[in-house]
Amino acid sequence: MSEPQDSPRAQDATAPFHAGELRLQDITGVRERMAQVGRNFIRDHMPDQHRAFFAQLPFVIAAGLDALGQPWATILAGEPGFMHTPDAQHLQIRQVSRPADPLAALWQPGAPIGLLGIEPHTRRRNRMNGRLDAADAQGMLVAVRQSFGNCPKYIHPRRVVWQAGEGGGPACHVSAEGAVLSERARAMVAQADTLFIASASPDAGQPSPARSGGVDVSHRGGPVGFARLDQVPGGEHGAHTTLTIPDYVGNFMFNTLGNILLQPRLGLLFVDFQSGATLHLAGHAEVLLDSPELARFEGAQRLLKVRVTQGWLIEGALPQLAVLPGEPA
Questions:
Q1: What are phi and psi of 158, to 5 degrees?
Q2: Mapping DSSP to helix (H, G, I), strand (E, B) and coil, where does residue 302 land?
Q3: CA distances (Å), origin 276, targets 72, 102, 130
Q4: Which of 24, 40, 207, 225 ranks highest by number of CB atoms within 10 Å?
Q5: Which of 42-68 are b and which e, b meaning 16 or more Cβ less than 10 Å from the residue's Cβ?
Q6: What confidence tens digit (pLDDT) does each residue in 114-143 have?
């Protein structure tokens, strides 16, 4: 016997959420409400205000998959206007990849991509997930699959600007990170009040993923050092670093945690706008819904436990992005 058309389960079929997202919505008692929210606010095109927003930004956070399906997060930067929308279904990004960018060689036609536009000083952020219609030396053209706004919670106000003609900054230096992070990488994590998470649904790398699938990138913020770092000397996985990231009350879509429930690999990005350094990490994650460790993170609803597997630390990666003097940082 089929479900009535107006039943919550039948309505789920038209909501843009997959099984992992729906499970967490069930646990928190918001599944029926979020089905309606998803249909109303997750669009297959970019509204005019989102199109104008991306065009004024000096950087965007991007997520993609490597050849093994591992998600990575990176940052693309350029003079405002390096992104524009020829129409509501496409976003054009001028060529901005750096030679040291871990995703530079992965932007190929057909590749899935997740984008997060964020303006810290106004605390605005918009998400867009899609696929590359084109990618070459001139840049890439993204076809929109999902476009939606996010709440401004946990964004630390700081004015990040593009400083054209301000000199080349420090020379770019790349070093590989392993399962045990270097002292410099640990310092970046300890000083961070912001990080970005790349995640993917299990079918993200397929030619035609489900409407609710794909690659996604999200923002996490908190007090300085909110991501707790532990060095584990041994055990099943040998010596490694773990990061414990608190998950606070948010929009209840559970895009990131829902992906991780189904596909536990993720990518993390830490950006030091003062020095221009970026730290790109890959790892395996577990969502802790009920753990004694929650007591150590005031206000946290859940925890994300990440075992680092590899990464890249790039000093001088962003010489033309800077935090304006006198702005909150």
A1: -160, 140
A2: strand
A3: 19, 16, 28
A4: 24
A5: bbebbeeebbebbbebbbbbbbbbeee
A6: 999 999 888 898 999 999 999 988 899 999
